């Protein structure tokens, strides 16, 4: 029990930064840097706050049971970025970049990446963002260069991008999977799967609770290397540009809803 409070920076030039509390917060005023791993955990209750960048030569791990994770600027790892919060929000001021995987898992809370024109989530392999109850919001782009983009908001909304039609906003080397339950999905820009499928699904308990439940706006093109599957249950779907699928294009509403392809 107790807090960790560092006014400026923490640097491990030849090793690991490991900060752990039981009940108590971790607060670093500026940046955290390690040549190996950065591990920051509050095992019972407490926030993790870093004023600037978090940078690791291998993995960045941030784990909170009850509390928020807030990073003022970039989170960068040569290997994996892993954030796990049971109850609380994750807020990153700029970009999240991993040389392997980005995994962000929340049981109850919101994910917010980016502000003031910044906000990219990029992994060389896979990006997985999962919220059991809450929203996922990424200011600019989500990209998995060789793997899958998986974004799931079980009881909440997904909003990605503030881009034009030609800007790759959600992009994967393999599959793009976007799923919202009792919410809506909004993509502002282009959605691309190079070799796999684009799967976008919204399931609502009743019609009319969230307006247009799947919306690809800013004249955002959808391009799938195999199939494009757009499915909404008890809701409406609106796509403002072309849908290009190298194999099959499947669009349907279940129970009640409308389809608008401009």
How are the SSEs placed, and which strands pair?
Blueprint: E1 4-6, E2 10-12, E3 17-23, E4 26-28, E5 32-34, E6 38-45, E7 48-50, E8 54-56, E9 60-66, E10 69-71, E11 75-77, E12 81-87, E13 90-92, E14 96-98, E15 102-108, E16 111-113, E17 120-123, E18 127-131, E19 136-138, E20 141-144, E21 149-153, E22 158-160, E23 168-172, E24 176-181, E25 185-188, E26 190-193, E27 198-203, E28 212-217, E29 222-224, E30 228-233, E31 236-239, E32 243-245, E33 249-254, E34 259-261
Parallel strand pairs: 1-4, 2-5, 3-6, 4-7, 5-8, 6-9, 7-10, 8-11, 9-12, 10-13, 11-14, 12-15, 13-16, 14-17, 15-18, 16-19, 17-20, 18-21, 19-22, 20-23, 21-24, 22-25, 23-26, 24-27, 25-28, 26-29, 27-30, 28-31, 29-32, 30-33, 31-34
Could you explain the architecture of this structure?
The protein is built from no helices and 34 strands. The protein has 262 residues and is mainly β.
Task: Summarize the structure in short.
The protein has 262 residues and is mostly beta strands. It has strands at residues 4-6, 10-12, 17-23, 26-28, 32-34, 38-45, 48-50, 54-56, 60-66, 69-71, 75-77, 81-87, 90-92, 96-98, 102-108, 111-113, 120-123, 127-131, 136-138, 141-144, 149-153, 158-160, 168-172, 176-181, 185-188, 190-193, 198-203, 212-217, 222-224, 228-233, 236-239, 243-245, 249-254, 259-261.
